[in-house]
Each structure stands twice: as structure tokens, then as C-alpha cells.
Amino acid sequence: MSGPQNAQDFIRALKAATDPPQAGGPLKIEIARQAWDNTSMYVPNKAEAIVEWLLSIMLKDKSRPPYNPLYDSRFWGLLSDVLCVPHAARASDHGRAIRAWMVPLLNRIPISPIVLSYLEAYHSGCRDAVFGFEIAARCIAVLWPLAAPKFNPETLLESFGAVIRLGASANAPVSPFNLPQTLDVSRALTAIVSSYRSCLANWAAKRKHLYTLFLGRHLSSWLQFVSQHREGEVGTLIADIYDAGIETMFGLETMKQAAADHKHDATLSEALMAVPPDCFEAVLRSLPMLFGSYVQSIKRHKNAIFSQGSSHAASHIAEQVQRAAMSLYADCISFARKVDDLPSWECRVLLLEVVERDNLVNAADEDSQALLGQERDSALQTLGDSWNEQYAQRNDCAVKLLASLTRLDYDSTSPSFALVLPKMVAMHRNVPSATQFLKLLVEYDSKTRSIPSFIGHVCEAFSSRRLQRIPGGAKAAYRIACNGPLTSITFYDELARAVHNFLTPGQVLGAIQYVAQRLEDAYTGFLDGAARRAADSGDGARKRRKKDRDRDAHEESGEDDGHLAVSFVLVARTAAAVLRAIPLHTLTEDVRAEAERAILGVHAAVVGRALADGFGTGQGGRRESWSWQLVLAGALRLHYSLALTHGLPTQPPLEQEIAEVTLSCVEDEGVIPELVVEVLRTLMHHCTTSTFDHSSLFEQSLNYLAAHLPNAENTWSGKAHLLESHSTGAVAALQLLVDRWLPEFDAWASIPQLQRLCRLLISSDLSSFSAGTQAMSLRSILVTTLHDAQFWEMSRLQDSFLTVLNEQTVSLDEIDLAKTVASLSAKSSRLPADAIQSITSAYNVLALTPLEYIPRSMHLAFLKRGFAADAALLSTLRYAKKVRVSESQLVVVREVLCRSMAYLDTIESLADSVYWPYVLASDQGVADNTSGLTSVTKDLIDMYQGSLLRSAKRAPEPLTALASKYAQGFTSRTPSMSERAALLLVDSIVQGVPASSLPTQCVDGIHALHTSMVKFTTMVSSGTSTGSIPFNEYSLDVWSHVRILGHWLGLEADRLPQISRKLAERLLSHSNDMQQTVALAPMIVSILFGEINALDSEHTGEHIEYVVVTYIALVRICGLPALSGLDTRLATACKALPTSAFAAMLDVVYEELPTQGKLGPEDVSSLVHFSALLLHDAPEGTSKTCQAFATKCLNLFADDRRFIDIPAVRHEALDFVFMQCSDRPASLRTADLSGIWSFIGALLSGSQTHDASTDLAVFHGIVNTLSALVRLRRDLLLQTLPHLGQSLRQLVACLRAPRPQLGGKQSRLVMDSLPRWVAAPPPSSTSASSTSAPIGAAESKALARLLTTLTTKTLVRAPQREQQQGQQQPASLARPFARHAAYVLTAYAGAVADPLCVLAAPVRRELLPGLCALCEMLGEHSRDAVMAAALDAGGKAAMKALWREYEKQRYVGKG
How far are the Cα atoms of 73, 76, 98, 335, 1238 from residue 85, in angstroms, in the given order? Predict the structure, then answer.
């Protein structure tokens, strides 16, 4: 199909009235495309003619059939090709620049209708518009900046509104903001927004009109856009759209017009109220940002807005700013109150945080105070259902609101605390802000010295009438209240700290008396309630008529003995926290004596009385009541707390008779577990202070544990109120015994009691407990105990523990291993269930026991018994159907065997001719392998075969026999343990010893094994066709080992077919099956490596390139973390490569390493990882090749900035450098240090761009690299100490963080001095939280360890000839680096004194040991010189503070 052949026909065709111009001919768009592509066809101003026609037809013929030129990608594609041609081609168009003819053309043809129509079609979801949007955006990015200066403000506003609607589109997949933005899309949208902002800045007369139009047409879309992109979006385009909306609404002229009434413009409030209901949630999410921006704008222009009256004082202007801001806050709150849901409360919290952050509350403004009071009342009303978990998030917002109000005006909020605290008693634990609010209240009361009144509010919150408002009865109230924030350990710690530090001496006696009175009132109320209940049930004495009336009044109030008991227990907990923290040391002697008497009086009046009433003679019936048991548990808890109070002259008494009665409760099944635990804890402590019979106490404790611990499958969270059964009570009692009283138990208990406790621990079934749970369980207690050094220092307990372990396993001595193994094929008698349980329990404990504390003789005994246990368990697992045995129990036994043999390193002496053949066949008859049995069995066999290989020189027969046995295998396509073991043996042989070091008979046996494996591969392959190759893990694994073993034996490698490429192609073609790809990749890559040895020199290079490409493709498909098994295989495959092939592979890798090459960043990072693997496992005789390659790589990393800027490549490059310095330090040369220092310097240098999140791995990688150089190559560092000092200075500077609430320029000044991988702090948001340091205490500790390493003496890992030339003596860098230490210390002093930065206290604390090491190097003389010449006033103050800390820990030679 031919078109016009000259310029005249071409122009006539484009201007023809019909399309196509000739019937049956090409369309106009095809004619235009053909003319543009035909470079030999001359048309004057061809580009201008085509663009004019395209824009004209898009503007006029928007819906002409058979196509729509506005949405047709052919039109936009041609326009893009014309506008975006290369500069050379553009210059050849008669030398006319595009701008010269484009601006007049755009003056004739407006493009704004075209762009608006296209964006609206995109927003509506037009398929053609969405498909061609990227091409259209490329054209708009070129045309819009040229045409925008001629547009009127209204047109620019409509275009800006179209961009907003794209971002706020409800059709999320259509929105370009929800898709990866290309450069063209971003440039096009940014050009539209920027042109509108320029118009807004230049057309002052139109701002009010634009403001009105924006509110009427685009406000709801803009708010939806802000709500969708307000979090985590820091892109320039999104920030520009937000700023454009703020500049439209809060421009100087707009705010000036509203300044007369000291309010904001009412038009904005009316527009907000007119938002449709379906946009409410979006508006609520946007309001805090809108309000915050308004406050910032009004503060920025406050002098221009409010300085026109007679009063120009700064205080008056500040009041006007506050009044105007609070006016908008009132309207925002009114809008937020229109609904009562979670987004509404979140909005109200964020709005109030803005008020708090910018200090907008004026105490003299009655309207503001009334508004905040309404918010406070609303929050209090919301907390009415604080017990309901359904409203936990809303309650969290209400508490945050109260916290902000408290920080704003404590005096106005404090009267409501009496209402807030009772509601917090029932608050669910999923309200994290409650604890922070309580901490805030304690801090304020500490500052005002009003702690006693706060204690009163807390005790009042625990009154029974408050607790009765919690539905579910007394037990539910107790459970909810104990789970709440007002009874949390965190709150009681804060309260105790406040009492101890801020309770004045004049308040001590009053506080004690008040607590005593509340305790007595709570207990008296409980006694009255219990008496009324007893009288109503007929158990108590009948009351007189007046008492009956009193009882009726109490019944009407709803107070029962259960709620009264809960009230007493909660008040007693508060009293315990307060009384233990009383600052007796601050009192005078007479006042202190009176305070001590008062505390003991509290014990006598309440605790002693309660224990006597509950445990006294004839009160057994009372102990059957849940409420009485709860009161007694609370009384014992208070007694224990007072007994541990420091400073009391005497211990609170506990009568002997009551103690004996108390102990009897342990045996009572009707007693709640919480009371049992409190009884045991109290009596344990009582044994240490009196002559109470500890033998009976220990016996009762062991009886309780023996009765309930075997059934203790439950876990315990550590809270007493959650002890719901005696099984959890037994866990709590055991934790109490081993954590607090184990030394006393070891000292006082008899040998039978010690053995009984150990037997309880060892005999327990640990298989039902998960190892990863955070709750307290029998397993967690046992693990903690066995890993506690104090436990093994108790000689009596240790002897008992080992004795019981020996008793539990001694029955295995009677088992004949040979007979048991022989009976595996016959269904003979098996071990009974109790013996199986005893054995598995013992080995479960052995698996958790540190090996160092078991004597060698017992190790050997447990090993021999383990062999018998292994065989007995496998026999039972196969044949005994009635005995409950699982594979996991067998796994534990074999893990113990592996640990013990590795620890003893005496496997040769334990080589049993019966056990090891049994292990090789142990996988037969086992149902599944989910428990890891195969893995641990392979480890066991590998350990055994490694020992045979090491002893082959002096005893070659076992290895020869084993290889011959394996050679008889490989007959089945299904792998057995014997075949797996043979492959493990091949790995051990190839990696362990060369063939020349083994006896001839061993080599012959291994050769026979290789022959058998070759026959197997020939059998399974059945030729060389890829279709007949078994594509499974086992067959490929055998094939790869045949190659490796053949190279080790020195055999010709051309006997096997070359199948690696076909296998790789088949694997990559089926890459959708990720699991199969990950499983087969190691074997196929190993085969690829193995076939290199079989190729001639002509084909080796091509094959090596194929190997590298295959590795890159596999990593691209699966990712490096998933291919960890591939790295292990490469270690074996690389060592078997010829030196020439290895050098060629390094050359291929280096050619593709530059990031500006054909490969992407991910592929380059995989290549860097691959090169590190090659160097780590290089063949022998390639040291010079490796050194040259490493030097070139180091120089490449330093020269190419992309190795610094791209995170994935940066990680692998840094790992490569660290590997060179730590794993191959002897290969480093002086020339390598230039590349290393340049690379590290580039990593630590400042950057104007930063990553989205701080990459802490870079900091640790640099520190580890420098540490390796300091420890291993001190000789090289001596020549480059200034570079080391500069790197340390930069690392110290990285610990800085910008101060919170810095301005934009100030933040940029700080961030430009930090590396790229340190993330910029988030922009100021509506949250009042401060910006934390991007690099924390862990990184500071690592840097301190590096600085301390400078003073540590080490040996140099230099090449052997250099070691022979110089005497190797341990030395450090302390003296050489002393002259450079001053510069590192000045960097620290500058960071501390920097007014724009903050060095967090944890960071300084962790860095102190390293700084002290530098101070030790520096000395006082150099310090004085530094103070005089190198530091300013702030730096001198920081240096003096550091030196004082150094002097505190400095060793002065006095002990």
C-alpha cells in the first residue's frame, strides 16, 4: 500500500475532507507515519506539518469513526516519535529547533482541551486511554511547558483538578499513582502541577477567584488524594500536588481577608460541611494535615496578617494566631463529630496533637477552653465501655485525647482524674496508650508533689461499687481488672519510683496512714459482706432489726462479698507497691521510727487479722469460699511485700500455728491455685527468717508438683490471676522454686528430696510444648534452669540430677544391641510403654543439657545407651502399634548422639560394627520424614564416615569395606539411606584429602564405587536424549557426584554424555515450579561445572559463559536466599576446576561486572556474589589469579558510583570486600588498600539523595571490614593510618541524627553530610512524636568494639614468606594510632556539640568504651593541645564531659 510520494501530495492528503483521502487507500495516520519513517522523502517543515495535523485532528475530530484520534495510540505514538527524536535528527530538519516552530503552533492550536479530555477519559477507565497513557504522557511532558504560559488561570486550575482526580480515582488500578511511575508520566503530571503553581504565584488578582473555584469543584477530590497518599509518600509529584492545594487555600491574600475577625475564611468550613457522606472518611484522614498546614501558613505570614492594627506586640500577634487557628480547629472538630466511628476519633486525636505541638491554646480564650472541655467530656463518655474489647481501638483514641489535654492544661484536666481512673480499671490490655497516660499522670503528680492525692484516686478506683459496673460477676471483674493498665507491673513500677523519689518527708506519715485506712476499710467492708452472706445462707448469727435494714440497704447497692474481696485484693496490691517504696532514708530518726511502726501497724491491723480470720482455729469453712481464698491470697501477697521492704527494724510476724495451717492448704483440691502459690512463696521466705520446718514445706511442695506437674500441658503467662487450674499452678510453683529458692533447696533439702525434684523434671513429657512460645511452660523452665550456671554450681543438686539421669537410662544397658538390630526384621518383643517414656524423657533433657557439665565417663555411658535406645525406638516405631512413639523422639536421640560425638571427638573408638550398618538401613519402614529424621541421620553418618577417612592411613580396611559396600548399591531408582550415605562419602573424600594421600586399597575401593555410580547413571539415562534423563533430584545428584569423583580419581571425563546444557534449558523452561527449580538447581549447576573438565580448549570458553548465564538466570528466578544449597555445591565444584578454566571464568565474570553494561543491578549483584564464591573456594595453585581478580574488583567498586547507590549491588560489593579482609587476609597487598579505602570512603561520604530506609547492614559491614583489617593485617594499616582515622571519623559522624522539628534547609544541611544509605527523617506530620536517631545503640556498640580492637594485640596473617622474614610478635595499633586518635575524638565532640544534630543517650553510652580507648591513646598532653587548637566552646564542653567519664573508669594502679 503506497502513499504520497512528494510533499504536495502529502499535504493534500492530510488536508483532505475524507479519511482515507482515496477510497480503498491508506488512512491519514498511515500516510503520516509512512512519510515520517521515509527519510528520503523531502517535505519542507515535515515535523511541523505532521504535529499541526495531529493536534488539529485531536482537537476537532475527537470521535470520528472508525477510530477516535484522541485515544488512538497510533496518533500519540507518531506525535511522540516526532517530538522526541534524537538531537542529531532534530537538527537535520532544516536546522530549525523544535521550540522555534512549536511555540507559534501551540499559540494557534490550544492543547489544554486535548489534555483535559484525555485525562478525563483515563479517569473514567477508558481502555484505550489507559493503554496508551505512557506514550501520551511523553508528548504532554514536551508540549505542556511550551503552551502553559498562554493559558489562563482557570484552565490551569481545571488541568490541576484533572491530575487530582487521577490520584483520587476510586478505580485504583486506573490511577497512575497506584502504578510504577515512569519518568515520562512523572514529568507530564509534574509539568501540569508546576504550571498551576507558577500561575498561582504570579496572578495575585486571581487568587481569590481560584480559591473559590477550587473549593467548589476540586476540594473533595484533593482531600481524597491527600488521604490516599499521606503516609509513606515522599515523592516530588505528590508533595507538589499537596503544596499546590495548600497554597490555593491558605495563600496570604486569602488569610488577610479573614484577619479582621481573627478567624479563618468561613468558605472553607462551608465547603467541608458540604462534602458528600461517601467522602467523610477521606476528609477525616486529611483534616489533620490540612489543619497543620494552615497553622504553619498562618505562622509564616503572621506579621503580614496581624500587624495592621494599633497593637503590634509579639504577644498580641501570638494571641491572634492562636485564636485564628483554634477557630479552624473548632470547625474541624465539628465536622469530625458528625460521625462517631474510629476514623472520627483518630482524626480528633491528630487534630489535638497539632494543637499541642504548635502551642495553640490560650488560657484566656474562653471559647477554646470550652471546646477542649467538650472534647474531654466526650472522651470520658466514650470510656464508659472500656471493658469491651470491641471498642479497644476507640478507647485507645480516647485515652490519647485525654493525654494530649493533660499535657496542654493539667490544671483543667486534673479534676476529671477521679472519673478517668475507675474507667481504666476495666480497660482492656489492648489499649497501649493507657500505660503512657498513667505514666504522664504520675510524672505530673511527681512534679507538683501531689503523689498522696493520686494514690487516693487509684484506691478509689478499686472500690467495689466501681467494680460492679463490669459485667460478668466478681470473677470476671477480677480477671479484667488484673489485666488492665492500672494493675500492670509497668504502672506499679512508675508509682513506686515516684513515691520513693518525690514523696516529701512531710507526706510520708500521711501517705502511710491513708493507705492503712483504705486497707482497713476494704477489709472491714469485705467482713461485713461475708457476714451478710453467711447470715442470708443461714450459717451466721441472725442480726437485729436495725442490722437487717442495713443489710437491705447494702443489697440495694448491689455490693456482694465477691466484689468486696476483689476490691481488697486490688487495694492491697497498690498498698504493697506504695509501702515498699516509702523513702525511709530521707526521714529523721523519730519520724522514721514512727513510720516504721505505722507500716508494721498496717500489717498487724490488716494482714495479721485477715490471716487469723481465714486460717484460724474453727475457720475451715471460710477457706471453702472463693472470696475468702482471694482475700487470703491478697493478704499473703501483702505480707510478702512488707517482708521484703528494706529499712524495717523487724520482719512482719507470721505466727507458727497460722503457718502450719497455711501449709495444709496446699493439699486441699478446693483451694484456688493462686492461694497455693502465695502460700508456698510466703512459707519459703518464712523458712529463711524463722525456725519453721523446711523439710515439711519441701515435702508438701514436691507432693503438689508430683500431683499436678505431669498433667501441666498448659502454659502460664506469669500473672497470678491467670492461674485457672492446678496444672498451671504447678508450673508457677516450679518456676517459683527454681528461680528464687533453688539455692536454699539445694542447701536444706535431703538427698531423696533433691532426687525427687530432679526426677519430676526429667520424667516430664516435653514433646507437647513448643520451643518458640513466649509463655512460661515446663520446657521453658527446664531450658532456663539447665542453662543457668548457678544450677551447675550446686554440687548436691548436680549430683542428684546426674544420678537420676543415669537411673532413667540404666535399663538400656540390658539391651543387646546386636540382638535388637537383628530383630528389626522379625516382630519380636518390644520395650514396654513406661520404659519408652523414661528413655525419651531422659534424652529430651540430655538434648537441653550443656555438654560441658557432664563427666566424660557419663558421656560415654549415655553414648552407648543411645545406640541401644536408637535401635529400641526404631523397632517400637515400626512394629509396636499400641505404644505411642513418634519419629521426633528418635530424632532427639540421634541429635544427642551427634552432639556428644562431636564434643568428645572419639568416634573412632566408638565405631560399632553393628550400629553403623543399622543406621544406614534405618530409613526402611519409616512412614514420613517431616520430623527431620533423614537430616539428622545424614549428619550422623557423615560424622562417622569423616572419622573413617581421617583414620584411613593407619586403618584403611573400614573405609575400603564401606566403599565396596556402597559400590554394590545403586541398583534402584529410588534412593535409600545407603545411596545417600555414598554421596556424603564422595563429598567428604573430594573436600578432605587428595587421592595420593590415601592407601592404594582405599583408592581401589573408591574407584569401584565410581564404576558402580557410572553404571547407575548409564542405566537411568538410557542414552543421551533429554527426554529419557530422569529429571529428579536423586538421579541428577548422582550424576553430579560421578563427575566430581572422576576428576578426583584422575579419570578421563569424556565417558559420560554432555547433558548439562539440555538439563539447564529444561529447568529454566519449567521455572514456574519454584520448588522444583530450587531443588534441582544445585545439581544442574554442579553438572555444568563438572563437564568443564571434559571439554577441549576450543569449547571451554563458550561453556563457561553458559555456566555464568545459567547462574544469573537461576538467581533471577529464585533469588539468592532460596539458593543457599547452590552455594554449598559450588564450594565443591570450584575446587575441582582446572586452573585455566578457573581463570577464564573469572575473566568472564569481570567483563560483566560493570553496572553500565548489559546486565541490570540485580544480575550484577548476583555476579558479585558468584565471584566471592569463586574466590572463597578457589582451586589450588590459583592464588595469583585470585589476587589479580580481587584487585581489579576492588578498584571497580571504588570507581563505579553505582556500586554505592544501588542497594542490592552495594550489599554484595561490601560482602565481597569483607570476605577478602576476613577470609583471605593473606592475599591482600598494599595496592588493594587504595581500592578498599576509596570504596569505604565513598560509602561514608555525604549525599544529597537518600534511601527510603536506613540500611544498617552497611554500617555493620564497614565496621566488620575495618575490624578484620585491624586484627589480621595490621602491617598494611601502618602505612595508611590517616585513611583509617578518616573512616572512623565518618563512622562517628553517621551516629548523628537531625534534631526534631528542624526546618527544611536545616534538615538538608544535616542530611547532606550523611551517607546515602542513611534515610532522611520523615517530614513533620501531625504526630507530635520526635524523630529518633536512624542509627541506634547496637551500631554504636559495634563501633566501640572496633575502637577497642585498636588496643588489642594480635598476630598478622601475612603471606608465609613475609612471616619468615619478620619476627611474629603480638602487637597492637595503640601507639601508632595515637597521633590520629585526636581527630576521631574531635569528630565525636563536634557531633555532640552540633546544634542541628542529636546524639542519643543510648548511642553515647554504648560508644563510651571505644572513646575511652582513644582517650588512653591520646594522653593528657595531646588532649590539652586539642582543647586549645581544634575545638570551639561546645566541643570543649563535650570533650571535658568525655574526659570525666574516662577518668572514672581509668585504671590508676591501686589494685
Answer: 18, 14, 10, 53, 40
Under DSSP, the state recorded for 45 is T
What number is the average pLDDT over the span 997-1001?
A: 87
Lowest-confidence range among 49-63, 162-176, 1391-1405? 162-176
- pLDDT the model gives residue 1241: 93
pLDDT in the model for residue 709: 83
CA dihedral (1249, 1253, 1254, 1257) positive or negative: negative
Alpha-carbon distance of 530 to 532, in angstroms, equals 5
Listed in sequence order, the residues at least 6 apart from 1288 whose beta carbon sits closer than 8 Å to its beta carbon are: 1266, 1346, 1347, 1384, 1387
* Contact present, 80 and 135 (Cβ < 8 Å): yes
Question: Cis peptide before 66, with omega less than 30 degrees from 0?
Answer: yes
Report the alpha-carbon distance of residue 1086 to residue 1177 in Å, rounded. 14
Q: How far apart are CA 1252 and CA 1321, in angstroms?
A: 9
Beta-strand pair 1397-1398/1297-1298: antiparallel
- The span from the CA of 486 to the CA of 535, in Å, is 34
Q: What confidence tens digit (pLDDT) does each residue in 141-194 have?
A: 888 888 888 899 899 999 998 888 887 764 434 455 544 445 678 788 888 999
For residue 949, the model assigns a pLDDT of: 86
Owner of C-alpha cell 535431703: 750
Query: CB under 8 Å to 173, separation ≥6 — which residues?
Result: 179
Rounded to the nearest integer, the mean pLDDT of the chain is 82
**Would you give the distance in Å from CA 726 to the centre of its chain?**
37
151 membership: H or E segment, kind and range: none
The H or E element that residue 1335 is part of is none
CB 1238 within 8 A of CB 1232: no
Q: Cα separations (Å) of 1308 from 236, 1304, 1323?
A: 15, 6, 12
State how far Cα 1300 lies from the chain centre. Answer: 24
Task: Report residue 223 as a C-alpha cell.
Answer: 482531600
Q: What are the cell numbers at 1389?
A: 565532640
Per-residue model confidence as pLDDT tens digits over 1190-1237: 999 999 999 888 888 888 899 999 999 999 999 889 889 988 999 999
Nearest 5°: the CA angle 1062, 1064, 1069 is 95
Nearest to 574 by CA among 498, 625, 659: 498
How far apart CA 1041 and CA 1092 sit, in angstroms, is 14
Please name which of 234, 148, 226, 231 lies closest in space to residue 193, comparing C-alpha atoms.
148
Q: How many CB atoms lie within 10 A of CB 90?
A: 16
What is the per-residue pLDDT across 592-624, written as a single tens digit (0 to 9) for each? 999 999 999 998 999 988 988 888 655 554 667
Q: Are 492 and 435 in contact (CB under 8 A)?
A: no
How much is the average pLDDT of 807-831? 74
